């Protein structure tokens, strides 16, 4: 009688619907992390551009202002690297979860024709790689060969903001160090006796 009622449900069907819902959520969240990474990086790049323009647009040198701006640039760059690295971590996390859900879906459906997006074995990865390479290498010519080789490097787009943040941070550190007058700093340290040195002088013998 249970088969004729609408209240009865198939446990396998319930599990399949749950896996589909979770699978969809995992893909959407993964895409959301990538989109947010782009938006946040654009915000930081805009902010950094304003700071750099403020440093180089000064008609007259303002050492203290330049010092503060460069220090702020270092801090903002570090925050940019942290945000980009955090977004990359969660992207990898959600891709891993999606791969695990794909494996469960394939086992639940029990269908060899199930198309996986993330959970690919080595043979499937090699097959996909060869198809992509053959499609890219259709373009001929010297310039196209260089472009094709760069494409086949498979650069991680989500890692580029991290590298950009580190590059900008190094730039800000160099600019920051250039704002310091080192001779004046050394004289200040020595004259204010911030360093306690030891002086060895030969004994002077006087005639009696």
Description:
The protein is an all-alpha fold and 208 residues long. The chain has a domain at 9-120 and 161-180. Helix content is 71%, strand content 0%. It has six helices and no strands. It has helices at 11-56, 63-109, 122-136, 142-151, 160-178, 182-191. α1 (11-56) packs antiparallel against α2 and α2 (63-109) runs antiparallel to α5. The protein is elongated and about 85 Å long. The N and C termini lie far apart (129 Å). 13% of the residues are buried. The mean pLDDT is 77.
Question: How is this structure best summarized?
Answer:
By secondary structure, this protein is mainly alpha-helical. The protein has helices at residues 11-56, 63-109, 122-136, 142-151, 160-178, 182-191. The model has no long low-confidence stretch (mean pLDDT 77).
